[in-house]
Amino acid sequence: MGNKPLTKESDYIQKVKDGDIHAFRFLVDENKEILLSLAQSILKEKSWAEDVLQDALIKVFHKIGSFREKSSFKTWLYRIIINSCYNELKKRKNYQDLKQAVKIFQPYSVENKNPLKASERKLYIQAALDRLKADEALLLRLYYLCELSVGEIAESTGFKKAKIKTNLYRGRINFKKELEGILGNEIREIL
Amino acid sequence: MREQDFKKLMKESSVETSEDFTDQLMGKLEAINTEREAKFSGQLSLQLGFLAALVVVLSFCFAVYFLEVKPLFILAMGGLMIALNRMLHLKQQYEKLKSMSI
After folding, report:
1. What interhelical angle do A118-130 and A161-183 show, nearest 10?
2. pTM, full prediction
3. B41-65: pLDDT as tens digits
4. Residue A54: is it exposed, middle or buried by C-beta count within 10 angstroms (0-12/13-18/19+)?
5. Do A37 and B14 make contact, defined as CB atoms within 8 angstroms?
6. Contact check, Cβ <8 Å, A145/B21
7. Among partner residues A34, A54, A125, which is closest to B25 by beta-carbon distance?
8. Residues A89/A81, Cβ–Cβ less than 8 Å
9. Is B17 in Cβ contact with A58 (below 8 Å)?
10. CA distance A23 to B38
11. Across the interface, which of A37, A46, A54 has its CB nearest the CB of B24?
């Protein structure tokens, strides 16, 4: 009799708890892009975000035994990744230099009459998010990309609900401002 | 900008990982596990060695008292092994080691 195929996330989690590295690979592949987006929101540099994410995922593999299925796995996972990123951010002293580096970005040329390609759209959106404060970019992604509720975000980040709502509000305004700064009137193109 | 616009734009904001991201991660994980496994198996061998030496020494010391009743001697040594095994948590360590291996 062959092994039953794993269908639910909880089956994979149980397998990982039993030390199955292949089940862990599946969980990583399922979540890696969202996790990297969250890490990128905080660290603003892709290669750094990838390194920190890998170290955080190793922590996840070793800590998964302590995960109790009372809360959602995603919330628990996001919390570990987010904490690791903020800890790394505190360690890096030249964060200000990094922020400056992010500011230098080629804006969209008004003379360019060609419609934006999907890859370009993505690039401009990511650039606008990278210009936001870490908290604002992170909360926007948690709320709209991960589709978490304010309560779940509070659980994942440890932020108070009031802070989340304020930063989401500010994040929306600042994101729009940054996107307008990059695209000018052409912002309609990407909506 | 409306709520739907934000949602749409954020959906497009996901960052793609490099192609070998998962392979790199698995490589790191494997290296860490091998290192831990070596450390644990070293500890385990040391404790098992100590246990075996202790049993041998005790056998030599007390064998004369038990010569008449061999089953009692075997029972006493067995009991000692089980007690030491419990004290040193060897079984748990072995299980941990087994669960960590890839």
Report:
1. 130
2. 0.73
3. 777 777 777 777 777 777 777 776 6
4. buried
5. yes
6. no
7. A54
8. no
9. no
10. 23
11. A54
